[in-house]
Amino acid sequence: MLLGFFAVDHKLISSEDPSVPKTVFTNADIQSLASVYLENNLGIKNPAIVDVDKDGDFDILVFKEGNVEYYKNTGTLDKPSFVPENMNYDKYSTTLPIDLDLPYPVFFADKNGDSSPDMFVIQDKVYNTQQQKTEYKVLYSENVLGLDTGVLITIVLVLLIIVLVLAIL
User: Fold this and answer.
1) What is the predicted pLDDT for the residue at 83?
2) CA 157/CA 103 separation, integer angstroms
C-alpha cells in the first residue's frame, strides 16, 4: 500500500477474526493498563500496542528504520511480559532521510463493540500525590470507517510524516 511518502506491506493485523470473543475497552480500562504496558520489560518508548496474535492481551509493535518489530506478550492482559517474536514482522519505507517514531504510545482496541480497532493515544503522564501513583491522560478516536489496525497505523505514520515535512519547511 502506498500513501504519500510512505509505503507499508499489508501484513498488519485484521480485525475480522470470528473466533476471538469481542472485548470492549473504555478510556478508564486503557488508563489503568497504560502503566504496565508503557513501563514494559523491554524499555520500549512509545509503542503501538495491539492484540496482534488475537489471544486477548496486548502485544507491542515497534517501527524502526523501515522495519516493524513484533513483541509477543507471554504474560496476561494485566501483567504483560514481552519477548521478541518477529523482528521482521513487516516493512515500511519512506522517502524522508529521518527515522519515524510514534510521538505518543498508541493502543488499538475496540471501544464500542463493533469489532473495529479504535485508537487510544496516551498523551500525558502525571503523578497523583494523593493516590501515590502515576496516571495517564487517554485520548480516544473512534474508527468510524471500520479500518483494520494496519491501515490505522499507516495513517498515524503518514500524519507524522506530514507534520515533520511541515516543520522542515
Assistant:
1) 94
2) 10
